[in-house]
Amino acid sequence: MPVKTTTKLYGGIDIAMKVPTHQYEATIAFYRDAVGLTPITDKAPAVGFELGPNKLWIDEAPQMSQAEIWLELFTDEFSAAADRMAKAGVVRCDAIEPLPEGFKGGWVTSPANIIHMVREPDAW
């Protein structure tokens, strides 16, 4: 049965691609040189590209053996959204990557094991 709530969740602007070290440089070259996406240079040393209205961030992840896509969801009130998702059986996975103390957001995983950052838009 669906969980009823007034808490709204909606797509964020960031997409993170976690890439193992052995594929990292080639992945950056693919999006920069082969695809020709416009680089985002104002957050160096982070490597990002404009992906339409979104931003694609390429993160080196030495602990991983294969690449993963992580998505972002916004909410106006994280605590209410977290409660809504918990009632719907969504799995929290905050240990996957540390967040700053007091950060208004957290990590969850979909049933297909896609990681999602759920946060208030001004959480940073």
Notes on the structure:
The chain is of the alpha+beta class and 124 residues long. The chain is 19% helix and 36% strand. The protein contains two helices and eight strands. Strands 2-3-4-1-5-8-7-6 form an eight-stranded mixed sheet. The termini are far apart. 16% of the residues are buried. The model has no long low-confidence stretch (mean pLDDT 93).
Please give the alpha-carbon distance between the first and last residues: 34 Å
How many helices? The count is: 2
Largest sheet: 8 strands, mixed
Helix content: 10-25%
Would you state the CATH class? Answer: Alpha Beta
Q: Tell the overall outline.
A: globular
CATH-assigned fold name:
2,3-Dihydroxybiphenyl 1,2-Dioxygenase, domain 1
The percentage of residues in β strands lies in 35-45%
List the helices and strands in order.
Answer: EHEEEEHEEE
Count of folded domains:
1
The name of the CATH superfamily reads 2,3-Dihydroxybiphenyl 1,2-Dioxygenase, domain 1
What number is the mean pLDDT?
93
Structural class: alpha+beta
Main β-sheet, spatial strand arrangement: 2-3-4-1-5-8-7-6
| CATH architectural type | Roll
Low-confidence stretches: none
Q: Rg, please? A: 16 Å
Total number of strands: 8
Structure summary:
This protein is an alpha+beta fold and 124 residues long. It is 19% helix and 36% strand.
Summarize this structure as a short list of keywords or feature phrases.
124 residues; alpha+beta; 2,3-Dihydroxybiphenyl 1,2-Dioxygenase, domain 1; 2 helices
SSE layout:
Elements (H helix, E strand, L loop, with lengths): L8 E11 L1 H14 L4 E2 L6 E5 L2 E7 L7 E8 L2 H10 L3 E2 L12 E5 L5 E5 L5
Parallel strand pairs: 1-4, 5-8
Antiparallel strand pairs: 1-5, 2-3, 3-4, 6-7, 7-8
